[in-house]
Amino acid sequence: MRLVLLGAPGSGKGTQAAQIVSRLKIAHLSTGEMLRAAVASKSPIGHVVESIMERGELVSDEIVVGIVAERLHGEDVKTGYVLDGFPRTVSQAVALDKVLADRGENLDAAVELKVVANDLIDRIMARASQAKAKGGKERADDNPETFALRLQAYEAQTAPLVDYYRSKSVLRSIDGMQAADAVAAAIRNAIGA
Ligand code: AMP
Predict the structure, then answer these.
(1) Residue 192 lies inside a defined structural domain of this protein
(2) CATH number of the domain that residue 87 is part of
(3) If you measure from the C-alpha of residue 53 to the centroid of ligand 1, how many angstroms do you get, rounded to a whole number?
(4) Is the CB of residue 49 less than 8 Å from the CB of residue 35?
(5) What is the pLDDT of residues 78-136, one digit of tens each?
């Protein structure tokens, strides 16, 4: 099963991706996590992307597509994967289609988590305080100022992917405002697995 999870920041993509991968025993490919790991390890890519991510802007297509294409060579993706946070631009989606076509593969579904923009900031701030309560570190981009920019980036650059995947007949839209378990059940139903 090869899936893309689409949704605004704070829509619950990470939570739902975690549920899907543990149920279907497939890989969780989060570009945000990969980029945060690059920043934490102070790799050359980490240096380039750190300030871009802190500002809430999108990292270049070239960097992100390169990271994902490399990751798709891993052994663990053979049984399938959930792409969480990728693609985020139409050009990334086209690049993904090319990688898949070269391997004779296709996407089973692009799952869109639909949420009300006004509620997202509350979710993001809840995530920041939960991370703090667990003794973890808050994300550098989980604050109201950066969040507004991340939402703008989503609306301008990522939202067009909904039409992109609809035109390919793989779009499955889910009401992301339900409780997390209800969202998970709706996804199971939508993807038939
Ligand atoms: P996320 O964890 O998915 O919310 O991503 C955190 C940040 O990483 C985003 O705000 C972007 O700066 C960067 N990022 C993650 N995925 C992508 C992507 N597919 N394209 C460009 N930038 C990305």
Answers:
(1) no
(2) 3.40.50.300
(3) 7
(4) yes
(5) 999 999 999 999 999 999 999 999 999 999 999 999 999 888 888 888 888 888 888 88
